[in-house]
Design goal:
By secondary structure, the chain is mostly helical. It has 14 helices and 9 strands. The relative contact order is 0.09.
Length: 342
């Protein structure tokens, strides 16, 4: 073999390995923006809130193996797809997906820790149980007894519920899911993760129902949008904290603190319309008190864009704030319906 061919061989191997790993972690934003449009144009997919998953319809000629290779780049993910969608993916001859049915495609995903996050809060938001904080820290090489370090990137695994067949051990389960030999390192790692997540002590047999945490069950980057889905639990939690503080500031007459404190909320992705309406309404009230009529009008229009029927309680809301909403509604959007208040 020539020297150039040898370089090409090793360059392709290591370039693909490390480029895929770090490119998927750090380049997901750009790849998501560009590739998501391509993916959506080819096959309709929908990103749901936590746990992260895509949903799509099965087309003629598509099998679990083909979808696993296309969306995950991992043929072994076919059995997991079947399990997630209520089929017996652990059978020696597993069934196939029904053409026309809507299936879920779970994924592991990365999260950059923000100031104020704790492992307990993150586990409650994205794993559905704050008691899984130790597991979340352990699987990411962190210490749950210490504060979550802001700026660090952690991985949330895809969670797959499994009914363990009779006489099947955890080692056999992991080996069948990963298509590896029972003594392989990957299988042993997965067994440890299953035991850790399900709180199974050494020597204690598993229960019939288990949750399998899969870190490597990760959709290829261009099949995911870069933004968060509406109703994202972590975003909602942070927004609720800031809104509670803003409400206290409003009652105490600290209007500048309201305007400054809610500025980050407006820039958050993943908020529900209800939270955005409350945010813009609080900002409108604060801007009126600060004599910033232009900013108050912008905030009022944002409220009416989200809810044209938004109304104000004349007992709780000052005449100046109601006047701003009337001006905002005169250009389009009414002022009758749900009542708003501080």
């Amino acid at each position: 073999m020539s020297r150039c061919a040898e370089r090409g061989r090793w360059g392709g191997r290591w370039g693909g390995r490390w480029g895929g790993r770090w490119g998927g972690r750090w380049g997901g934003g750009i790849a998501g923006l560009v590739g998501f449009a391509v993916a959506v144009g080819a096959v309709p997919v929908v990103l749901s809130a936590a746990p992260r998953a895509l949903s799509r319809q099965v087309k003629p000629g598509e099998t679990a193996a083909k979808l696993a290779k296309r969306y995950y780049g991992k043929p072994w993910a076919a059995r997991v797809l079947l399990l997630v969608n209520g089929l017996n993916g652990l059978a020696k001859r597993p069934p196939e997906l029904k053409v026309g049915s809507t299936i879920k495609m779970p994924t592991a995903w990365s999260y950059r820790i923000r100031a104020g996050d704790t492992f307990e809060a993150l586990a409650r938001d994205y794993l559905g149980n704050g008691a899984k904080a130790r597991f979340l820290a352990w699987i990411n090489g962190k210490d749950a007894r210490r504060p979550a370090p802001p700026g660090h990137v952690i991985i949330f695994p895809a969670l797959v519920k499994v009914k363990l067949p009779a006489r099947m051990t955890l080692t056999k389960l992991a080996a069948r899911l990963l298509k590896r030999t029972p003594r392989s390192e990957a299988v042993m790692r997965l067994v440890r993760r299953i035991r850790k997540y399900n709180d199974l002590r050494p020597g204690v047999g598993p229960s019939r129902s288990l949750v399998v945490p899969l870190i490597r069950m990760r959709l290829l980057g261009w099949f995911l949008a870069s933004g968060l889905p509406a109703g994202d639990p972590g975003t909602m939690r942070r927004a609720e904290v800031l809104l509670r503080q803003a409400k206290q500031h409003l009652r105490a007459g600290r209007y500048l603190e309201v305007a400054v404190g809610l500025a980050p909320v407006v820039r958050l992705s993943g908020l529900t319309p209800e939270l955005l309406i409350r945010t813009h309404h609080f900002r409108c009230t604060a801007f009126v008190a600060l004599a910033r009529s232009g900013l108050a009008l912008v905030a009022a229009r944002a409220v009416l864009r989200l809810d044209p029927g938004f109304a104000l309680d004349p007992v709780k809301i000052s005449p100046k704030v109601r006047a701003v909403y009337r001006r905002a509604g005169s250009g389009g959007g009414g002022a009758g319906g749900k009542k708003g208040g501080n």
